[in-house]
Specification:
The chain has 116 residues and is an alpha+beta fold. The chain has two helices and eight strands. A three-stranded mixed β-sheet has the order 1-2-3. Strand 2, helix 2 and strand 3 form a beta-alpha-beta unit. The two termini are 19 Å apart. The C terminus is likely disordered.
Length: 116
């Protein structure tokens, strides 16, 4: 499977961030694509308000990117049966959904993700 190059979408993401003129996004020039999370974006500052964090998240999702502020992680929510049901970013404001309705099928000892 060919891996997606996120450099182009990252540039479009940054352009939209500039256009918001949101004071919380003033340090966007220091933001970078993460190496260990293919479509993750390292945000070097903490968002002070939930509305700023949610706006950042929504713009990121629009471009298939996952912005991560300091001390945030990507995680998977599980059903009561231990089945993965959605991927999320855990923030200081709570969970922000990346993708819902994800089904995982056990294929041997590994889980394969299937979108529904």
């Amino acid at each position: 499977m060919k891996e997606k190059d996120y450099k182009r979408t990252f540039k479009m993401f940054i352009q939209e961030i500039k256009e918001t003129k949101c004071p919380a996004f003033i340090n966007f020039s220091t933001w970078t694509l993460l190496k260990d999370l293919q479509n993750g974006v390292q945000i070097d500052s903490v968002m002070e308000t939930q509305s700023d964090r949610e706006l950042l998240h929504q713009i990121g999702l629009k471009y298939g990117l996952i912005p991560l502020c300091p001390n945030e992680v990507v995680d998977v929510d599980l059903s009561e049966d231990g089945i993965p049901v959605r991927s999320v970013v855990r923030t200081s404001f709570g969970k922000m959904t990346i993708k819902e309705n994800i089904r995982f099928r056990n294929s041997g000892s590994k889980f394969r993700r299937h979108e529904t």
